[in-house]
Amino acid sequence: MKSANFIYKVLSTFFFVGYLPFIPGTFGSLAGIAVYIPIKDSGIVYPIVLLGLLAVGLKSSSRAEAIFKQKDSPRIVIDEVCGMLLSLIFIPVSYINIIAAF
Length: 102
Fold this sequence. Notes:
The chain is mostly helical.
């Protein structure tokens, strides 16, 4: 069970971005941009990655709340990653739009 808890922590904190000591949600959004950049022009890959992250986020964040013993823990940032990808999916690719979405 401990290894499963570790995996849930890794996923919900998006590879420990959520453990940064200040503004972890903002860094989670930046991580979302880091995911967006390489997949933005890849057609079918973008929605597959987004749906995969949404599924992983739903499962891992609910489990992580129990592990962290805290409702809506600031360490859980996978929702910020998904939110960033969702906000950018239907708008034209440009740095101005990325900044506006951020």
